[in-house]
Design brief:
It is a single chain. The chain is mainly β. The protein is 11% helix and 43% strand. The chain has helices at residues 64-69, 142-148, 152-156, 199-207; strands at residues 2-8, 11-17, 21-27, 33-41, 46-48, 56-60, 79-83, 88-89, 94-97, 104-106, 108-114, 130-137, 140-141, 161-168, 177-182, 185-191, 217-219, 227-229, 234-239, 243-251. Strands 1, 2, 3, 4, 5, 6, 7, 8, 11, 12, 14 and 17 form a twelve-stranded mixed beta sheet that branches. It has a five-stranded mixed beta sheet with strand order 9-20-19-15-16, with no helix packed on it. The protein starts with a strand and ends in a 5-residue tail after the last strand. The site of magnesium ion (MG) has 7 residues, from loops.
């Protein structure tokens, strides 16, 4: 199943993505819901971020290829940082290039959407707490990341967390092809089989630190091939079994 969150005729709803239609869901996909017989045309709905996270837990240096291009040693535990929930934007929305940054990079990543509150879960139990998977772009002001020596500013700007277009369930997360396209040209490609710390391990590890809530997102790290974007660019993150998250880059307007 592919869950989407959308607005249709002023009403925000969840639905199931079908061929050219969205089948309307009544209720809450994180607790109890029913799939109705009603559909709306995809073209008449505006796609929203598929979840509303309380927090985004991101993992740095989780592909060997990316650690190598950054000249960093492989971590012996997951390297975690947080992105604020206010950075979230959806499929089709614009990433706003901040006035205070000189270099803003894409990082295509597999996003894990938590389905149930979890704390201190074992890796073997982690799948029960995952609702599904989505595409994520861990947008990063690379110059500010280097300057600050930590990630809050560099990865925390509004619009720096594009997510979507859907939450795909019934997906095995351990061997999915992932690719990123800048203006239609492929810039990143990899597979989640190269993750240093795989998905279930991450859920278990993070749940020993902080309580994960329904809708929370884990951004699992990016493969090699990161690079800068400019205002006017189109950026796409495509993951096997999920779909393609498309965004544009816009100049900041009227900011100081
Ligand atoms: Mg990243």
């Amino acid at each position: 199943m592919k869950f989407v969150r959308c607005v249709h005729q002023g009403i925000t709803m969840y639905g199931l993505l079908e061929q050219d239609a969205i089948r309307i869901i009544s209720g809450d996909i994180f607790s109890t819901y029913t799939v109705t017989a009603a559909t709306v045309a995809s073209a008449e709905a505006v796609i929203l971020p598929p979840c509303v996270p309380s927090k985004i837990i991101a993992v740095g240096l989780n592909y060997r290829s990316h650690a190598a291009e950054m000249n960093m040693a492989l971590p012996d535990e997951p390297l975690l940082f947080l992105k604020p929930a206010t950075a979230v934007i959806g499929h089709g929305d614009a990433i706003v290039y901040p006035a205070m940054a000189q270099r803003v990079d894409y990082e295509g990543e597999l996003g894990v959407v938590i389905g149930k509150t979890c704390r201190h879960v074992a890796a073997a139990e982690a799948a029960r707490y995952i609702l599904g998977y989505t595409c994520f772009n861990d947008v990063t002001a690379r110059d500010l990341q280097k300057k600050d020596g930590q990630f809050t500013r560099a990865k925390g700007f509004d619009t720096f967390a594009p997510v979507g277009p859907c939450i795909a369930t019934d997906l095995a997360p351990d061997n999915l092809a992932i690719a990123t396209f800048l203006n239609g040209r492929q810039r990143q490609h990899g597979t989640t089989s190269d993750l240093i710390f795989p998905v279930y391990h991450l859920v278990a590890f993070i749940s020993r630190i902080m309580t994960l809530l329904p809708g929370d997102l884990i951004a699992t790290g990016t493969p090699s091939g990161i690079g800068p974007m400019q205002a006017g660019d189109r950026i796409e993150v495509r993951i096997e079994g999920i779909g393609t998250l498309k965004n544009t880059v816009a100049e900041a307007a009227g900011t100081a």
